[in-house]
Design brief:
The protein is α+β, with helices and mostly antiparallel strands. Helix content is 32%, strand content 28%. The protein has an eight-stranded antiparallel beta sheet with strand order 13-12-9-10-11-14-18-16. The protein has a four-stranded parallel beta sheet with strand order 3-2-1-4. Helix 4 crosses helix 5.
Length: 418
């Protein structure tokens, strides 16, 4: 891997990624800087040389100072970040220590949807109109200028929280209340942008020194109002020409944003005017997409992320693996019971799960909410899901149909609140 990494600074937690780093590089020494509120979630803490917990709401200066203090007596070879929330801190630290990593501007562009849109428009990559808005009147002005429908969402968000599709000016007040409730106050408020009409997909990819390789085009099924993702297919059923067009478009997006290394998860809408960006992330996709990519392509995106962070060249090996035949198709479907009459309730019993788990084409059927868990009146974001089912199929459509049918055969009994 060139000069061997002996001491890695990991900024943020990252679930099992730090453990993977130790498996990939035997004898690796690691120091972790983590947010105080996730210190309890660090897995196998004894494998690390040291763990330093800091408050996350005091800017990056303290994180840089802590890293510099350790670096002065026990130098780091590289800086890694496996948690999206902490990528800004990792970028600031790597820049301060003159070590490889995403630059602060790149992380800001990936996290801030308004800044991202402005950069892509200036680069001639994606002209989708957007604007930061401070009240419902700003949304009305945007709609009057650009037409409806429009999308209102937090500038920085996750899990489709706070996202609303506004189809006329009559919907604005309700959407404003919804999106404001889903926004993180310190993360930049809300953005409104033109609604992208077409088929939405995600593109899983990997970059190494500016060279991009698309791994997979993932098909999506989404709630039409709040854009909560209901299901995915790996790979999606798209022809080679479209896959090539998507790979070229995503490479242009990443170049414009300065993303040169690592795993990316990029959400794109296939419009009548060509691909248009929804957003991109400096991490693998969630919702078990990484598991499905491993099953179908034999490519572990989590390992790719960690190997890339360690400076291990993997692109040629990845391309050789992708040249081999895929192992069929796989899909996932998420089910959420709806509270009758729009009144929130709680799960009192679940039946039918054992029968679904016994189906020969089902890879996994797992409850995300157990009896006693609260069910909201509206599916607001991905946290409302109660069940996932992952299934195999000869085609993307067959896999998705099987996963959805199996998920919908599980019955949830609900007790209404109050």
């Amino acid at each position: 891997m060139g000069s061997r990494v002996r001491h890695l600074l990991i900024v943020g937690n990252g679930a099992d990624a730090p453990i993977r780093a130790h498996r990939i590089v035997p004898g690796l020494r690691t120091t972790m800087l983590v947010r105080l509120d996730v210190l309890h979630a660090v897995r196998e803490p004894s494998v690390h040389q040291r763990i330093i917990a800091l408050r996350h709401d005091e800017g990056t200066a303290e994180w840089i100072a802590a890293a510099q203090a350790v670096h002065a007596r026990d130098p780091f070879d590289r800086v890694a970040s496996y948690a999206e929330k902490d990528q800004d801190k990792a970028a600031a630290v790597s820049e301060a220590l003159s070590l490889p990593g995403h630059r602060p501007e790149t992380v800001e562009l990936a996290h801030d949807k308004v800044a991202m849109r402005e950069r892509l428009a200036r680069a001639g990559v994606d002209p989708t109109p957007s604007a930061r808005v401070s009240d419902a009147g700003d949304v009305r002005s945007f709609g009057a200028t650009h037409g409806y429908p429009v999308v209102l969402k937090p500038v920085a968000g996750a899990g489709s929280s706070g996202v609303s599709v506004i189809r006329s000016s009559d919907d604005i007040d309700e959407a404003w209340a919804w999106s404001s409730a889903g926004a993180v106050p310190e993360a930049g408020g809300l953005v409104v942008e033109a609604y992208l009409e077409g088929i939405e997909v995600s593109v899983e990819g990997f970059s190494e020194a500016g060279r991009y390789q698309m791994v997979c085009v993932t098909g999506k099924a989404k709630d039409p109002v709040h854009c909560v993702e209901l299901g995915h297919t790996v790979p999606g059923d798209f022809d080679p020409h479209l896959r090539s067009q998507l790979a070229e478009f995503v490479a242009q997006v990443l170049d414009a944003l300065g993303i040169r290394d690592g795993v990316t998860h990029t959400e794109v809408v296939l419009t009548a005017n060509g691909p248009r960006l929804v957003e991109t992330h400096l991490r693998p996709g969630g919702d078990e997409i990484t598991t499905m990519v491993t099953d179908v392509f034999g490519v572990d995106l989590m390992d790719l992320m960690v190997e890339g962070s360690l400076g291990i060249p993997v692109l040629d090996r990845l391309r050789a693996r992708l040249a081999e035949p895929v192992r069929g198709h796989q899909a996932i479907w998420f089910a959420t019971p709806h509270a009758p009459g729009g009144i929130p309730g709680r799960i009192s019993a679940v039946t039918g799960l054992d029968e679904v788990q016994a189906l020969p084409f089902v890879r996994e059927a797992r409850l995300l909410k157990s009896p006693g868990a609260r069910i909201p009146s509206v599916v607001a974001d991905s946290r409302a899901r109660a069940l996932l089912v992952r299934a195999d199929g000869k085609t993307a459509g067959e896999a998705l149909g099987r996963a959805r049918s199996a998920a919908e055969s599980v019955n949830f009994a609900l007790d209404q609140d109050g």
